[in-house]
Amino acid sequence: MVTGGGTGIGYGIAQSLLLHGAKVAIASRNADRLTAAAEKLTVDTGGTCLAVPCDVRDEGTVRALARTARDRLGPVSLVVNNAAGNFRMPAERVTPRGFRTVVDIDLFGSFNIAQAFVREMMEEGGGSIISILMPDPERGFPLYSPAGAAKSAILSLTRSWAREWGPRGIRVNAIGPGPIPTEGVTVNMMEMASDETSDVFGNMRETLPLRRLGTPDDIASAVVFLASPAGSWITGTLLNVDGGVSLP
Ligand code: NAP
Description:
- The protein has helices at about 10-20, 30-45, 60-75, 95-125, 145-165, 185-190, 200-205, 215-225, and strands at about 1-5, 25, 50, 80, 125-130, 170-175, 240.
- It is an alpha/beta fold.
- The strands form 2 sheets. The protein has a 4-stranded parallel β-sheet, with helices on both faces. It has a 3-stranded parallel β-sheet with strand order 1-2-3, with helices on both faces.
- α1 packs parallel to α2 (about 30-45) and α3 packs parallel to α4 (about 95-125).
- The longest helix has 29 residues, at about 95-125.
- It starts with a strand and ends in a 7-residue tail after the last strand.
């Protein structure tokens, strides 16, 4: 199960899981875009990809998503909390409505998804939950403070869940992606640029120790590692996959 699996990093994660033989359900709000993505993923990988329109903020819809995924694909052993909302705004101008929207999607969305799938994982004897956060979110996220707060809270949940659910065979981890020029994040970044020709990502690239921006595949590889038997003794961890951007 990959939330936000119709675009960007989520799409890359879904594609990689399909290529590794998993059956994959993707879920997000935009039904047309999601269905087109699932069809392309199915054709390109020869696997089974199911599109289930869903707003992760709505707990009833998320419970229905869990039922549909189980009925159509079987027990769900991996959930990737990737769906998120974000916008650039100086902290003093963030409205309660804007703050609530980001926290609702990122934090409550991750909570709703985990709640909806974890009981089934317990019944099945185990599973894996992976949340896509940001590098070291407890350090804050200037100009994106609501997202920083939400991601930091999800890291806390990751650690609480890892301790509580570990004895039931459920591993809970997080990944902190560095800058990856997906369409979603590019829209945000362009708001930062003073003119449309500014090479925001190019400037960022020069500050990275590895001197290259990330790709959805970089994050997908980390998901596959954490979800696979190779990661079977890893839980409660934040794995920064960020070209070294978080180095002190
Ligand atoms: P993206 O393409 O904009 O992905 C966001 C996804 O979330 C979209 O597929 C969107 O689909 C879905 N979504 C938003 N609100 C939703 C809701 N209420 N319910 C269900 N789905 C919802 O951007 P991305 O760059 O791939 O980001 C993916 C993840 O990586 C996010 O968690 C982001 O914070 C994280 N991340 C990205 C970067 C980066 O540089 N790209 C860096 C650090 C972390 P719909 O519009 O159809 O709902």
